[in-house]
Amino acid sequence: MIKSILITAGLLTAVTPALAKPKTPAAAPVVNPAPAPAPTPVPLTQVEIYRIAPGQHQAFLEFIAKCDEANTLAGLPPRQLYVHSDGADWDFMIIQPAHTPPEKAAALDAAWDKVGLPSGSNFFFEIRKYIAEHTDTAAKGPTTAADYLATASR
After folding, report:
1. Residue 125 falls in which region: left (phi positive, over 0), alpha (psi -120 to 50) or beta
2. Do 60 and 52 form a contact (C-beta atoms < 8 A)?
3. Which of 31, 57, 80, 88 has its CA 20 to 30 A from that of 20?
4. From CA 125, how far away is CA 150, in angstroms rounded?
5. Torsion 100-104-106-112 (CA) sign
6. Per-residue pLDDT for 113 more than 70?
7. Which of 121 and 38 is assigned the larger pLDDT?
8. How far is the C-alpha of 93 from the C-alpha of 33, rounded, in Å?
9. Selection from 115, 113, 107 nearest residue 76 by Cα
10. Could you read off the pLDDT of 32-76 as tens digits, one per residue?
11. What pLDDT sits at residue 38?
C-alpha cells in the first residue's frame, strides 16, 4: 500500500507541475517597459441637421449626392447621411469631417469644378434653396469613452 502511494505521488509530481518541487529560478534579464503609446487624437467632426423646405427633399439629396461625387473624385469619403424616420422635426442629418485635409484641398477644388458645383457665396445661395432651417456644430468623434479619457488626461 505504501509503495502504491509513493508511486502515485511520483506520477502526480511528474505530470502536475504544481505538485513538483520548486526549482530555483534563473535570473531574469532586466527589461525596461515600453513607453505607453500616445493616445489617438480624436477627430473634429461636423454635425449638420436639416429641416428641408416643402417639396425640396429630392433636390436637396441630389445636391448632396453631387457633393459626395466630388469627394469621391478627390479621394475623400462621402458624407454620412441619416434620414429621419420618427421623433423630432428634422429631415436629414449629415456627419462629415470638419476640415478637408490640406493635401486633398486642390483635388477637392478640381473635383468640385468638374462636377459643376457652385463655389463661394454661390454655394450658399444654391443650398439654401432647399433648406427651411438647419443647425450645425463641431464635435469631437467618433471615439470611445476610454479613448477620449486617455486624451483628456494628458
Report:
1. alpha
2. yes
3. 31
4. 42
5. negative
6. yes
7. 121
8. 46
9. 107
10. 777 767 777 888 999 999 999 999 999 999 999 999 999 999 999
11. 74
Phi, psi of 124 (to 5 degrees): -70, -35
Nearest partner of 67 among 112, 16, 97, judged by Cα: 112
β-bridge partners, 139:
45
**pTM higher than 0.85, yes or no?**
no
CB atoms within 10 A of CB 67: 19
pLDDT digit string, tens, across residues 86-106:
989 999 999 999 999 999 999
For 15, the grid coordinates are: 505530470
* Number of neighbours of residue 49 by Cβ within 10 angstroms: 19
* Bridge partners, 48 (sequence order): 94, 136
**C-alpha–C-alpha distance, residues 39 and 133, integer Å:** 38
- Whether the link from the prior residue into 41 is cis, omega within 30° of 0, is no
Place of cell 442629418: 93
